[in-house]
Amino acid sequence: MPRVPHMRSTYPVVGRGRERSEWVRGTVRTQDRSPLHAALALAVALALMPTRGCAGELFAGRSIDLIIGTPPGGGYDIYARALARHLGRHIPGQPAIVAKNMPGAGSARAAGFISAVAPRDGSAIAAITPGAVMGPLLDERTDALFDPTKVLYLGTANNGTRVCISRRDSRIKTFDDALTQKASFGGISSNESTREYGYMHKKTSGAQYDVVSGYSGTAEIALAMERGEIDGACGWDWSSLKSQRPDWIRNRTVNLLLQAGLEPNPELARMGVPSVFQYVKQEADRRAVELIVSQQAFLRSYIAPPQVPAQTLAILRAGFEATMSDAQFLDDAEKLRIDISPLAGAKVQELVQKIYATPREVVAHAQGLIAP
Questions:
Q1: Can you give the pLDDT at residue 156?
Q2: What's the confidence (pLDDT) of residue 191?
Q3: Which stretches of the chain drop beneath a pLDDT of 70?
Q4: Are residues 34 and 110 in the same domain?
Q5: I need a labelling partner for 147 at 20 to 30 A (CA). Which of 38, 162, 168, 206 fits?
Q6: In a domain? residue 44
Q7: Which residues neighbour 80 within 8 Å (Cβ) at sequence distance 6 or greater?
Q8: Has residue 132 been placed in a domain?
Q9: Can you tell me the distance from the alpha carbon of 148 to that of 141, in angstroms, rounded to the nearest whole number?
């Protein structure tokens, strides 16, 4: 397009090693201030503003690192790698999406990398657990690796229900059995649901099991159950369990003891699995459990760094939303036996802000429930 006289158009300023999105406002340099000239100048300025084609240039010929905050083979890894196979088609420029695992601190390590180290140009995003989002609120003993209210949410792939399970040959056949008999339930680490829900259910119900933490992920917990090292685990996402161990469900290799969600899961309810709230008798406990369980509304969140330019964030969010309704992605998800029930990034952002405004006394009680 020929350069328009007396105009300074809007172009990106390219910084060293990354694209920066410092946009220079166009100005009109003319002595003619007539309404007609002003209207013509405005029309030209609008024509020179970034368009869909310019948006494509942001990622054309580039790649986006998708940092997965959990070990390979677990539910979060399965979801994230499914997303990685399809997301690039829905981002202008069709960048390659490169999945990389960075486990640690219940995915807070990956979130900290995105928050403090990753470039702010949209070339790095992360898949994190809701425990990492809730960690700075509920675990004051741990130095926060990032601020969940400052990172930018692209969306969540699903909300979900978490379950307690036990081996079929365990003495714990129902959750009522756990109230009277000793058992060992596996857990991972702080900011991770298998440990935190294990303690939450134990403290609100009076269950007699011990939480044995330190496993690297649910894949390792599954192996420990198969070896007979532990009786079971709590806080396992129902969708992940079905995807990771479909034979366990098909062959009834495990007992489904309890489900945790703000509302009962219809599938689990038909199977006769009781709700957590049947075992929560105190009102203070109930309010705290509701806070803890509310994180399941953004069960598989994907984030971008703080200060990513608004245009870039809009592109990433639009690409994520388009992927969630993409026929090829949904077919892939069905083959993997993973549930897709997405929530848009702006809604997740709003929900996280609301959770962090929870009254202090409720937060304090919830902290006590998930602590060892």
A1: 97
A2: 80
A3: 1-56, 140-143
A4: no
A5: 162
A6: yes
A7: 66, 68, 99, 127, 300, 302
A8: yes
A9: 16
Report pLDDT for 190: 78
d(CA 142, CA 150): 18
User: Of 27, 49, 71, which residue constitutes the final position of a domain?
Assistant: 49
Last residue of a domain, one of 277, 295, 313: 295
Cα 188 to Cα 200: distance, rounded to the nearest angstrom = 14
DSSP for 171-216 reads: S--SHHHHTTS--EEE---TTSHHHHHHHHHHHHHT--PEEE---S
Pick from 299, 301, 303, 300: nearest CA to 118:
303
- Evaluate whether residue 9 is within a structural domain: no
Let me know if residue 1 belongs to a domain.
no
CATH number of the domain within which 215 lies? 3.40.190.10
Rounded distance, CA 109 to CA 190, Å?
A: 12
CB-based contact 298:355 (threshold 8 Å):
no
Handedness of CA 271, 210, 298, 70 (dihedral sign): negative
CB contact set of 242 (below 8 Å; sequence gap of 6+): 249, 337, 338
Q: Compute the C-alpha angle 301/302/308, nearest 5°.
A: 135
Residues 38, 110 share a domain: no
What's residue 124's pLDDT?
98
- Residue 122 near residue 20 (C-beta atoms within 8 A): no
What was the pLDDT predicted at 56?
Answer: 65
Do residue 140 and residue 240 come from a single domain? Answer: no
Same domain for 155 and 304?
yes
Domain residues for 20? Answer: 14-49
pTM, rounded to two decimals: 0.77
160 contacts 329 by C-beta, under 8 angstroms: no
